[in-house]
Amino acid sequence: MGAVDPLMYKFAIFILAIFIGYYVIWSVTPALHTPLMSVTNAISSVIIVGALIAIGTEFIDGQTNPSDFFIAKGLGFFAVILASINIFGGFYVTYRMLSMYKKKVK
User: Fold this and answer.
1) 45 lies in some domain
2) Does residue 65 fall inside a structural domain?
3) Positive or negative, the Cα torsion across 20, 21, 25, 26?
4) Which of 25, 50, 52, 90 could form a disulfide with 41 if both were Cys (CB 3.0 to 4.6 A apart)?
């Protein structure tokens, strides 16, 4: 009997995370969905950190092909742009949702 392939192990964790996330979100009351959306938008900042690490790969490994630096920097920059749009857009949608609950000034 051989060892379990690391890819299958990671895939199993991914599938479990999907089910756990689904049931955790499903059990949240509708009144708390707006703060939950705000927090999930803040979690997207992890993508920014990963993209910045991808951009700075030339400082980590000095023996990689220079064309790989261009690919890593390009994809990292693209990830920073998309994650920024996701974060700021998500906070804007949350702001608009919260403004629906404010009392109107007469």
Assistant:
1) yes
2) yes
3) negative
4) 90
